[in-house]
Write a structure and sequence with these properties.
Strand order of the largest sheet: 3-2-1-4-5
CATH superfamily of the largest domain: DNA Cyclobutane Dipyrimidine Photolyase, subunit A, domain 3
Number of strands: 5
Shape: globular
Structural class: mainly alpha
Bound molecules: flavin-adenine dinucleotide
Number of domains: 3
Distance between the termini: 54 Å
Helix content: 40-55%
């Protein structure tokens, strides 16, 4: 009998571990492990757990229709799992455990411990490769080293992808007579309601979202992707982060869409974004210190951060007095999601202008994001703080007002999320005059941009002068 352990791969289609286990023809059961204390330590957001609960409820029903038993195992932390999985295996005469490997350090350690524990009882573990569109082992420099810069890595990635088109695993076939499903939905500990209207919790909804994006918006992606007021990106990240859809599946749809228009799929700018996701995974796998709060550039450990709880709180609440920053933070609270340009702006504001430690911003984002994804979030924060691999140069400090004028020129995005500024014209909305702010009950700017910019440049120059590299 096989046991498949689902994690951040909450789908039936293109799920290597599930498909390969079912193909053995020896009977398959499926489990998911809830570890609420561990999730708390990893700052998993209630909205993200809410989406996961719905996806699991849907998976349970579909597996039961295929005659595959499904259960949620409850523990507190990863450390509790070897014993619990072992007991489950004993109880159900499991001979083989199948799972899709994950990237971060704690998850890899957990899998090592379980593999060792089960080995003593002759239970065979089958870790499957699921995280990468292009197997990461194929991506080495000419000297056999690990890439630290995106562009040459991406060139090789494209080259490999062109040579070996993606292969998807079909949904497993029925394994027996349908099983009756419990009538109550699965509710993971720590989960909360979330915007079902934006992300319905089923695999088919994830697929529809992908299909609709490719049919209607893929070809305009490059012109529209930077404008938060326009529905220009895919908003697939919550589904990718929970595994309701696989990145390989996205690549297949990109290929099909370009085949339809007779254009070159390898030139697709959306493909490049999926590659960024993969690059951060590649880095986290090859540089385990990234999973342990370390900056990619070790010398940046000596950067002196401010520690101003009041300013951090104003940033979290969306009350900085910079309308585009506040609109972005309020979008995060109201939807659990934030547009990429705004993630860059709010993270840059936090690390460069407030000069607050990027770790605080990173964990706050995780605690709120419905698409919280450790490698992408860590990569995005380190990029913004200029502590990361291939990071934005340290002297690049976004001006929130200029960025607002450029990427939300008519102020429509600000109006949506900062309604107290709703009546302002499209010029003054980016930086309302002092008197108007008072009348409207909108805060004065919490920092002076010019002074804050000077301060951060001096900090980085001092670090450079320490000659630590
Ligand atoms: C500070 C910061 C924190 C971030 N935290 C996360 C996070 O926790 N989870 C997350 O999925 N993304 C994160 N990102 C990356 C990016 O902002 C989101 O993936 C994107 O906004 C999701 O919207 P979308 O699905 O419409 O993206 P699209 O533009 O449609 O892109 C398609 C997919 O490609 C991937 N992707 C796109 N841009 C990036 C990128 N820069 N880095 C990594 N992957 C990317 C995502 O999976 C995304 O769903 C972060 C970026 C920054 C700057």
């Amino acid at each position: 009998m096989n046991l498949v352990w689902l994690r951040t791969d909450l789908r039936l289609f293109d799920n290597p571990a599930l498909y390969l286990a079912c193909q053995t023809g020896q009977g398959t059961r499926v489990v998911y492990c809830a570890t609420p204390q561990q999730w708390q330590e990893h700052h998993e957001a209630p909205a993200k757990l809410g989406l996961r609960s719905q996806l699991l409820t849907n998976i349970q029903q579909r597996l039961h229709q295929l005659g595959i038993s499904f259960e949620v195992i409850r523990a507190d932390r990863f450390n509790d799992l070897p014993e619990l999985i072992f007991e489950y295996c004993q109880k159900h005469q499991i001979s083989d455990l199948w799972f899709n490997s994950e990237i971060p350090h704690n998850e890899r350690l957990r899998d090592q411990q379980i593999t060792q524990h089960l080995h003593t009882a002759d239970i065979v573990c089958h870790p499957c490769e699921n995280e990468f569109i292009v197997p990461q082992a194929q991506l080495r420099t000419q000297q056999g080293g690990v890439y630290k810069v995106f562009t040459p890595w991406y060139r090789l990635w494209l080259n490999r992808l062109a040579q070996h088109p993606v292969e998807l695993f079909p949904e497993p076939a029925a394994q027996g007579a349908p099983i009756a499903s419990p009538t109550h939905p699965i509710e993971l500990p720590g989960s909360d309601t979330y915007r079902h209207d934006l992300w319905p919790g089923t695999e088919s909804a994830a697929f529809e979202c992908l299909q609709k994006f490719c049919n209607e918006r893929l070809h305009h992606y490059i012109e529209r992707r930077d404008f938060p007021g326009i529905h220009g990106t895919s908003i697939l990240s919550p589904y990718l982060a929970s595994g309701a859809i696989s990145p390989r599946h996205c690549v297949q749809l990109i290929q099909e869409t370009h085949a339809h228009y007779g254009t070159d799929w390898l030139e697709d700018p959306w493909l490049r974004e999926l590659a960024w996701r993969e690059f951060y995974r590649y880095l986290m796998l090859n540089f385990p210190s990234l999973s342990r709060d370390q900056p990619f550039k070790p010398e940046t450990r000596f950067l002196l951060w401010e520690d101003n709880a009041q300013l951090v709180e104003a940033w979290k609440l969306g009350k900085t007095g910079f309308p585009i920053i506040d609109a972005a933070m309020r979008q995060l609270h109201q939807t659990g999601w934030m547009h990429n340009r705004l993630r860059m702006l709010t993270a840059s504001f936090f690390t460069k202008l407030l000069l607050e430690d990027w770790h605080i911003g990173e964990s706050y984002f995780m605690s709120q994001l419905i698409d919280g994804d450790f490698p992408s979030n860590n990569g995005g924060w380190q990029w913004s703080a200029s502590t990361g691999c291939d990071a934005s140069p340290w002297f690049r400090v976004f001006n929130p007002v200029r960025q607002s004028e450029k990427f939300d020129s008519d102020g429509s995005f600000i109006r949506k999320f900062v309604p107290e500024l709703g009546e302002l014209d499209s010029k003054s909305i980016h930086n309302p005059p002092e008197k108007l702010r008072k009348c409207l009950g909108y805060p004065q700017p919490i920092i002076d941009y010019k002074d804050a910019r000077e301060r951060v440049l001096t900090r980085f120059e001092n670090l450079k002068a320490m000659n630590l590299t």
